[in-house]
Amino acid sequence: MSDLLRTPFFPLYQQYEGVRCIDFGGWELPVQFSGIQKEHEAVRERAGLFDVSHMGEFTVRGEQAEAFLQKMTTNDVTTLVPGQAQYTLMCYPDGGVVDDLLVYKLEDQHYMLVVNASNIDKDWAWLQEHMVPGVSMKNDSEETALLALQGPLAVDIIGKVTGTDVFTIEPFRFVQNAEVCGVKLLLSRTGYTGEDGFELYVPAEKASAVWNGLMQAGEVHGLVPAGLGARDTLRFEAKLPLYGQELSPTISPLEAGVGMFVKLNAGPFIGHEALLLQKNEGPARKLVGIEVLERGIPRPHYPIYAEGVQIGEVTTGTQSPTLKRNLGLALIDSKYAALGTPLEIEIRGKKLKAEVVKTPFHKRTRTQKTPTQGADQA
Fold first, then answer.
1. What domains are there in the chain, each with its CATH number?
2. Which of the residues 213, 217, 227, 359 has an alpha carbon 20 to 30 A from that of 258?
3. Residues 169, 176: contact at Cβ < 8 Å?
4. What is the pLDDT of residues 189-246, one digit of tens each?
């Protein structure tokens, strides 16, 4: 796999005996270090450290930067204050999704966009195609390493290696130039696991110092390195969408259940007209949770049936590591989306009984804030 891209953390992988790397969108990345089940449980109960440096980072600045991003994304950029981030989407005119992303407001008319690794080139081209005077963009992806420290003990671990009061950082807020493990970086209380945690945007040349410092600080807390496998099962249980599965050029944000990040009253954006029509008419398809009631695990693209007719397909499915149930997310005809609706799923040529179940499959218990305890992540 020598022709694959590697993150700044790649040389550190080899110290872990159980590490197994795969080709992930042109990157050589660890699918697991000690086992997906172990890593999943560690994040739910203690903490896990993920290398997600394959993600892309663009900076957008200029006197028209806010207006430009308001046109390009579905959420309301004008509500952001410096030090705040928001989840949003870019759409095509027909309402299909170009990508889902985070927008960080660094200061007035200065933003950072964090985009999916497989979409870096596509997103850059899309933004450049719609560029206007008064806006400049820079692709900082190669100079930026990204770590995600996730789990209920993440705040305790990071609190040991920084002078920043991490307990008071609110969800979707961040601190620029925070010093962590002796390195200045952007520290954000965000994540993709359904647990509390932080994402650390690190200068690429300082990456190993931060990884090693966090792993050392987290040793007594049971911190483990975690790979793509656990990242996927964790986000799945929390019903966090994955581009290419729950979101795509042919699946709209409303169909995927992330309509709360589409602010139709905030002004026109690309795809506004199509999504407004879809909202008024009601989306024809809906993303739902399903459970297979017989022995069988749902996998992406397995067909779903109701009343003898195919009504959709699985987008993501597995045996839930937390719940030990055979669960899936499926995009189906909205007429069959009510909880408890009986369905059938075709697995290896055989139709098995299934039903629509409540999502998210896992939602962490939120504790009250105290003077020594930080806010929970949204």
1. 10-53+142-237 (3.30.1360.120), 284-357 (2.40.30.110)
2. 227
3. no
4. 999 999 999 999 999 999 999 999 999 999 999 999 999 999 999 999 999 999 999 9
Which residues sit opposite 97 in a β-bridge? 91
- CA–CA dist 371, 361 (Å, integer): 31
Residue 360 — φ and ψ, nearest 5°? -65, 155
pLDDT at residue 2 in the model: 66
Among 262, 321, 281, 349, which residue's Cα sits nearest to residue 44? Answer: 321
As a whole number of angstroms, the distance between CA 105 and CA 78 comes to 10
Q: Quickly tell me which residue has 């966009």 as its tokens.
A: 113
Kindly report the length of the chain: 378
This prediction has a pTM of 0.94
Per DSSP, what are the bridge partners of residue 21?
30
Residue 225 is classified by DSSP as: E
β 110-115/174-180 pair status: unpaired
Of 168, 150, 148, the residue nearest 210 (C-alpha): 148
CB 297 within 8 A of CB 318: yes
pLDDT of residue 237: 98
Q: Which stretches of the chain score pLDDT less than 50?
A: 368-378
Do the bridges between strand 183-188 and strand 84-91 make them parallel or antiparallel, or are there none, so unpaired? unpaired
CB within 8 A of 29, min separation 6: which ones? 7, 21, 22, 51, 54, 227, 228
Query: If residue 37 lies in a helix (H) or strand (E), which one and from where to where?
Result: helix 36-45
* 215, amino acid identity: M
- Name the residue among 53, 47, 67, 57 with its Cα closest to residue 24: 53
